[in-house]
Design goal:
Elements: H1 15-31, H2 35-40, E1 49-50, H3 59-66, E2 70-72, E3 84-87, E4 93-96, H4 101-109, E5 127-139, E6 146-155, E7 162-165, E8 186-193, E9 196-204, E10 207-216, E11 220-229, E12 239-247, E13 256-259, E14 267-268
Length: 285
């Protein structure tokens, strides 16, 4: 991964500077409209059209999908099913409205805002939808993986159905946005003990790590890694990921972990980086 010159991802901050920044991040999170959906609602972190197994899918299907070459050849139920109850691994639940098949199909088949390659006159076959059925899928969310209802659309000549999340996007929250264009230094974390975390963080290959820091409030834990650029004559512009522990004063519990550099929440054991969601909202996918 390429980072800024000489490998440093950001200027080092003193302990006082970290405390000031952490307080700002924690206060912003406390007053943010994004907080309640993130902790108690459902915030999807992937497209609402569930990715098929492209290894088992004919090559023409991808091109036809990009160009929205859909052709409906069956009647879709227009009535919305009963509400569904979502369940998370931590025992949390949420009752949500379910879309009708017609609404789900509209989301599946809407034209893309981009096309990687244009559809040649003879290279784009119609995606002929011949059957629809209720289904389920596991998707990532702010509260961990969750099982959600889907509408599964069978396309003639394609071995797997196209699955569209059937939860009404109107009740979903959006991914929290970073307050500025800052780099997300800490990417994810593990809970080693109730009050001990292991952070995964990005730094330059010529940087030295001097320790980790945490600022705690009743609702959040803001974390940072003290990384400083070594005084060397020459260094490449490459970054690397390392891990470091941080000990909290109190058990983490249900508090949200926030990266001090970007201000965004972190997801445990995850490669999803919210700083990359600045121009992307899964609800509109």
């Amino acid at each position: 991964m390429l980072v800024t010159a000489c490998g440093s991802v950001r200027a080092p901050v003193t302990a006082d500077e970290f405390t000031d920044r952490a307080r700002e991040v924690a206060e912003r999170w406390h007053s943010s409209a994004e907080r309640e959906p993130w902790t108690a609602g459902v915030v999807p972190l992937r497209n609402l059209t569930v990715e098929p197994d492209w290894g088992r899918t004919p090559r023409w299907v991808g091109r036809s999908t990009i160009n929205s070459a859909w052709k409906l050849e069956t009647e879709l139920p227009a009535e919305a099913p009963a509400r569904a109850e979502l369940r998370w691994a931590d025992g949390g639940t949420l009752s949500v409205p379910v879309l009708a098949a017609t609404a789900a199909y509209a989301g599946l088949s809407k034209p893309k805002s981009f096309a990687d390659e244009k559809c040649p006159a003879k290279g784009c076959r119609p995606l002929r939808v011949i059957e629809v059925a209720r289904g389920e899928a596991t998707v990532p969310s702010s509260r961990g993986e969750v099982r959600v209802p889907t509408w599964d659309f069978t396309v003639k000549g394609v071995p797997e159905p196209f699955r569209r999340v059937a939860v009404d996007p109107a009740v979903m929250g959006g991914p929290p946005r970073p307050p500025d264009d800052g780099i997300q230094e800490v990417g994810t974390y593990e809970v080693l003990t109730p009050a001990e975390l292991r952070l995964s963080y990005l730094h330059g290959t010529c940087d030295t790590t001097y320790g980790s820091r945490a600022h705690e409030t009743p609702e959040a834990v803001v974390v940072d890694v003290d990384v400083r650029h070594d005084d060397v004559e020459a260094c490449n512009a490459m970054g690397k990921t390392d891990r470091i522990g941080v000990t909290l004063r109190e058990p983490l519990g249900r508090r949200v972990v926030l990266d001090s550099s970007s201000g965004v929440p972190l997801l445990p054991h995850s490669d999803i980086r919210l700083v990359e969601f600045q121009n992307y909202d899964p609800r509109r996918s």
